[in-house]
Each structure stands twice: as C-alpha cells, then as structure tokens.
Automatic annotation (TrEMBL):
SnoaL-like domain segment(s): 12-105
UniProt GO molecular function: isomerase activity
Keyword Isomerase among record annotations: yes
Lineage top rank: taxon: Bacteria
Organism: Epilithonimonas arachidiradicis
Keywords in alphabetical order: Isomerase
Protein name in the entry: Ketosteroid isomerase-like protein
Residues forming coiled coils: none
Amino acid sequence: MRNTTILHEANEFVKNGDYEKFLAYCTSDTKWVFVGDRILNGKEEVRTYMKEFYLEPPVFNVEKAIEEGDFVMVTGEIRLKSAEGKYEHFDYCDIWRFENGKIAELKAFVIQKEP
C-alpha cells in the first residue's frame, strides 16, 4: 500500500475521534516535531498531545499530498476547537516519514490564521 493511502486511511480515524486506531499506524518510537513549538517522542507523548489538543476531532482539508520514497508531504487547513469552545483555524504543511508502512516521524509547520 502506498504511504499516501496509509496516511489518508489513518487520518480517517482522527476525523472520527478514534485516536487509538490512528496510533496503531505509528511506530512505537514515532517522533513528531512541531517546528517552533514542541517535540513529541513516542506514542505515549502523541497520545497525551491528542487528548490535550483534540478536544473534539479536528476538521481538516487536504489541499495537496505528494509522495516520494518513504516521505509524504501534505498541505492544507485544519480547525481545532479550543477550551473556550471556539474553532481556531490553521494552515499546515506536514512532512511524514514512514518505516515499513508505519508513521515514524512528522515534521509539521503550522501557522494560525487571523480570525
């Protein structure tokens, strides 16, 4: 299965709020780098992040997905519900690295849009 297909399949679980099924698509030592913000090491830190920031499943729109070798680059928009109950809007560019069909690393560039 192509890595782009795997990523889209995994993200369907995020859209439905089933974060544990999404995490099954990740290596145990997955590393997520949010440039200029934080680095998450391992599934447990990603799980904690999702519980904290995905109060409701995020709403995202993929604009482009480009695959080359073990990498998939995705651009788009994402909306996250804040603790105050308001949606915050972001543009993103994610670079995903795969190992043996699993998500091994994410490097994410995320920019908040003005309200």
